[in-house]
Structures are given as C-alpha cells and as structure tokens.
Amino acid sequence: MTTTIPARSLAVEGDIGVLTLSYPPVNALSQVMREAIVEGMREANANPAVKAIVLICDGRTFLAGADITEFGKPPKAPSLREAQDQIEGASKPVIAAIHGTALGGGLEVALCCHYRVAVPSAKCGLPEVHLGLLPGAGGTQRLPRIVGVEKALDMILNGSHVPARKCLEMGLVDALVPEGELRAGAIAFARTVLAEGRPLRRVRDNDDKLLAARAHPEIFAKVRQDNARKFRGFPAPEANIQCIEAAVNLSFDEGLATERRLFTELVAGTPSIAQRYAFFAERKATKIPDVPDDTPTARVAKVGIIGAGTMGGGIAMNFANVGIPVVLVETQQAALDRGLAVVRKNYENSAKRGRFTTEQVEQRMDLLTGSLQMEALADCDLVIEAVFENMAVKKEIFGKLDRICKPGAVLATNTSALDVNEIASAATSRPEAVVGMHFFSPANVMKLLEVVRGAKTSATALATAMQIAKKIGKVAAVSGVCPGFIGNRILAARSAQAQAMVLEGAMPWDIDQVLYDFGLPMGPFAMSDLAGLDIGWSKETSKGATIRERLCEMDRRGQKNGAGYYDYAVVDGTRTAQPSEVTRGIIRDLMGEQGKVARAIGKEEILERCVYAMVNEGAKILDEGIAIRASDIDVVWVNGYGWPVYRGGPMFYADTVGLPTVVARLQAYGDRMGPGFTLSPLLERMAAEGKSFTR
Ligand code: T1G
Questions:
Q1: What's the CATH code, domain 603-688?
Q2: Is 285 a pocket residue for ligand 1 (Cβ < 6 Å)?
Q3: Rounded to two decimals, what is the model's pTM?
C-alpha cells in the first residue's frame, strides 16, 4: 500500500514503512520537504502495521541541506526542528538510507534517525561553514557525540564531504549496503534492528565521546591557532568552534540554544549573505543565455596539451585526476621528460600529504603520455595549447592543429591575455572550434577557469569547455575577448593605482598591508615578487623607467632570488618578507627625477583607489558585454585571485558600500586616479538610478 503526495510517498513492505522524499534537483529541505517529513512520519508512526521506518530520497541524492534560497526570508512552518523531532521522537526505529550527498540539514536529519545506512559512493558532510554559517539543526551537538570532538571539529570547520567508508569507520553510519541496492539494504537493516530488538538509539542521549574533550579543553585553543591564517576575516569558523565547545561544556538543550543563537547572528550577517551569494553565483556562471543546456557537446575521451611546462603539466593533472588520458606534446625530449617529472613530483608530494595512494599516483601517471610529434594530437577530442605568450608561435600552432586534428575536436588556447580571435584566425578552416581556456597557476590547484568566447566560437565548443570544466572540478566563467579578459584586466586597473601611489608617497608594503587586511591573500607587490619581477623584462631593452625595471637591473627578481620589492630572509625555516631600503631608495630617486614630492597617503585612499578602480573596470567589462553578468566578475575574482568570499566579490562589495558612494569617492579623487582613468558610464548611471550590480 502506497500513499503518494507531492514530495513524499509511504510504502509499507511487510512490517517496514518506506518513507520516500522527493524534491528535485537535490532534495533540499524546503518547506514542502519539511512538511513531507512531518506528515510522512505522522502517518508511518500511526500505522500499526509499520514496525520500523526507512527514510530514503528519490533522485540523485539524499537530503542536500536546508533550502538556501529560503534564508533571509520569513521562516515558513514547519521548522526543520519540528521535522527532526518527529523522527527522533518516533515510537519505532527510523533508519536513514543515504546515497549521493547527505549535507548540512540533510545530515542533521539523518542524525536524528536512530540508525543510518549508506551505499559506498555516498558522502556525508556539514559544509555550512562554506556558506558563512554553522550546522543550525543540531549538527554541532550531535556530530561530536558520534565521532568525537576532534573529528567533528575537522569535519565542520573544513565542511568536508566524507566518503561513506570513512563515515562507517567513524560510526557516522552503521552499515554500508550494496551499491544500487539502497532501498532493499535499508529494509533488511531495519528488519535486523527489529529482530535484534535494538533500542531507539538517540544521539543526544550519549555523551561518552565528549568526555575526552572535557578533560582536554586545550584542543579548542589548538584548533583556533592552527587555523588562524585560513579563517582570517571569516566569522563563521569561530562560531562553529563555540558551538562545539558548548556541546562539551553544556547540556544538550543548552548547546542547542547556543547553536541557535550563533546561527541567527551569522545568517543575518553580510559575510554569510556574501558567501551564499557566491554559492549561487558560481552556478549561475555556468548558464550562457544563448547556449541552451541541451547544446550538443564533444565527448572528451582524450586530451592533447601542447607544452609540458608548469602550466601544461598542471593542466594535464586536472584531466588525469578524473581518468581522462592526456598526450603532452613538446618540441624537445628533455622538456617533455622534465614536464612529466614535475607532474610526478606534484603527485608524490600529494601522496605524502595523504591525498593520493601511491597506486593512485601510478594510475594517474599511466594516463599521461608524451610525444614530440603534433600528429599525436590527431585523435584528441580537446587540444589545449599552453606554450609561452607569443602570438606568432600560437598562430603557427593553430595552423598546424587545423590540419592535424580530427573533425569536431575543440581547439583551446590557455593564453592569459592575447586575442583569441586572432589565434582562431590561424585555424582557417575551423575558427568556430577555437575557444580560450585560461587556467590559473598552479593549474592543478586553482579553481578558476576563464572560458574565453571568440567571435566565431561555436555553441558546441563553448558548451564543451564549460562541461569539461565542471568535470575536472573547475569553477568556470565565460569571458569575451579583450586584453586580460575579466580577471587580469581588473588586476591591471588595480595595479595602475598601486604603481601610481608608490610614486606619490605610499610604500609598496603600505599598500600590500591594506589589501591584506582587507582580506586578500597578498597585495600587488608581494604578488609580483612571488610571480617574479623579470617576467617580460630583458636587460637589453630595460630603460630603468620604472621601479620594477630598476629592481631587475639590480638583479632583484623577486622571491626566487631573495630580493624584489621586499628583502627576503629565512627566519626559523620560514621565508619572511621585509620592507627594503633598496626599494625605498629607488622610489626616492624616481620621484626626484620626476619632480614629485611625497605626501602621506592614508589607508582609506589606498583601499578605495585600488578597489573602486577594480569596480569601475568591472562595470566597463559588463557594459562591453565581456562578462555576461556582474556576478561572473565576482566568481572570477573570488576563485582566481583570492578575493575574500565573505565580501562576495568586487561587484557585490560595491553594492555593499553603495554605488553612489563608490562614484562619489572616485570623483573626489579626480585627477589622482591618473590620466588613464575614466569613470564607467554604466557605473555612474546605475549609481544615479539607485541600482545595484548583484542585489
Ligand atoms: N538549497 C537550494 N538550492 C540548492 C541547494 C540548497 N541547499 N544545493 C544545491 N542547490 C541547487 C543549485 O543552486 C543548483 O541550482 C542545483 O541545486 C544543482 O546544484 C540548517 C543551515 C548537493 C553537492 O551547503 O553542495 O543545511 O543552478 O549544480 O554539482 O544546518 O549542490 O540548477 O538552478 O551544485 O550535483 C547546506 C549545497 C545548506 C549543500 C550537488 N547544504 N549544495 O552538487 O549540483 S545550509 C549545502 C551542494 C544548511 C542547516 C544548514 C551541491 C551538491 P540550478 P549543483 P551538483
């Protein structure tokens, strides 16, 4: 007998009631789903034929958490707490049957069940910290009671999706059932529970796992210290830690009250609003208005990469990591060998950190082959050119690809700034197959992929690039063709202000400090030292006209040779950057030669000129149609340049400040913004009209 209403159905199989929930695409705990749980549990509890209940979900995953779209709006009954109480207070055993990802509120619902089973491919997590939140439905109180405080701290503060096997080891799930047989396996487990007369086990009733932490409160100080740098500027991690401390030190209900109070504070705060915005912005960036979701795409079974340097090797790792074979093409055997050796070293380092087993390293390396012949690319479905930034070389390569590659192959360039349309013109018979795929270094680590759409790029080529980006775990955003695309063009706007200000009286370390304190991982000068000041510089052509050129002429090439804008020393084994009197002297000389007199530049001016110049450039990028939407610009800067996600991105931040304020400040700086600066008409218009980019 089955009763089915929207979102739920209850089937009685013998003495087991199977309550199936359904709310595509990810079974988020919307109001409909909460109601389905409350009503479904009432029905199952009231049915005398039902001796135990299996809670299972339709579709691709178990409950994936609260419905994030409901946050910030008036709550709608029933609450998640009411749904959980129906489960935890049931008069018969409730077994959660988990597949896909049981996340956030979804896992918190499962923790209210008396038992949990999962298929091996399932994962469980409490990733609320990534939304600037904390598990607000008892997760901070129940998880430590199951897995212990240290594992709970790790899981909650990293928001990790823990594979089912590890969940079994931790006691988070009670049994694994065969893949594809979740329903039958859960029913069998329920029958075992009944046959063995197992109790209605409530997580809240058992504090045993908390005792160790009670005896060692210092673990909380340690976790704070160990993560200070990673959590800098984020309010949520500290709130999560306080909730888990409450679990250790207070009663269950007092701990729940602490959790509710801190959740309520976080959910209303700008950092969480920004992080939730970023979550949806990443997903919105995959939507291309004139490229429908059902656009045919090339099946990428084999990838070719031209250039086995740092970028080519890093790019190759992305595909090997998901089981796609790669052929790397180089011109010299030594370069090819060196490239593959670097890749192996990267994998072995990851293995040392426990990320891969040695077997997995070999599996990945077996997928990487090399060749000195471009003809080896003939059977590749996607070819990515990753040679140095020289237009003539790239055009020569694409001319050859045009002759060698099979029909339907997508031809991508990893250029970080060059004109993709000009490169495409070299692939004379198929410019529509050419697309930019701008990876960020280190390509096997950085999440962002700028997918650059040329004037002739076909919908298929574009859709293929976006699809493969998701498969290799990248966050992709589409850019039109312009110098620097979205990210580097905005970076250049910021650099122009930073470079100008060091010739007006601010020191590089002053500017870096302001941007570091704002939340960026490092400022422009530290970034230049890290990348190397001599990129694009040559002794022969150097004119000594800029600070950078003079530093290079003094062989101060950045971190790599111990001196750049900063002096680098190794103190207690760690490299430290110190302000340099050499750099200060170069700045003084240059200002003297240019007849400039230093003035004091305050932190506010430094921040506003750098950040609002970025916003202004973003508005131009939007106005020119280089970016499809403002949130794509934010996706680029959060995922490619370390913009603090709790500030949403440059465009979200501008809305937080208020566009009228941004415009007024830029106008107040006037000529100080430099001769190359012009106010974006779109920005000015939107400010005047009281509009916002992202709200
Ligand atoms: N709420 C609303 N919509 C969601 C959603 C959610 N929780 N999760 C996903 N979506 C939408 C998403 O925007 C996209 O929409 C579609 O579903 C597919 O998502 C009280 C407070 C589950 C691993 O943080 O991690 O519970 O673009 O493209 O790659 O303590 O979605 O199609 O219109 O990402 O297969 C905690 C967030 C919430 C999980 C699936 N839960 N979601 O990945 O699909 S807070 C999360 C994910 C909470 C409680 C707290 C992933 C996924 P559209 P997708 P996917």
A1: 1.10.1040.10
A2: no
A3: 0.95
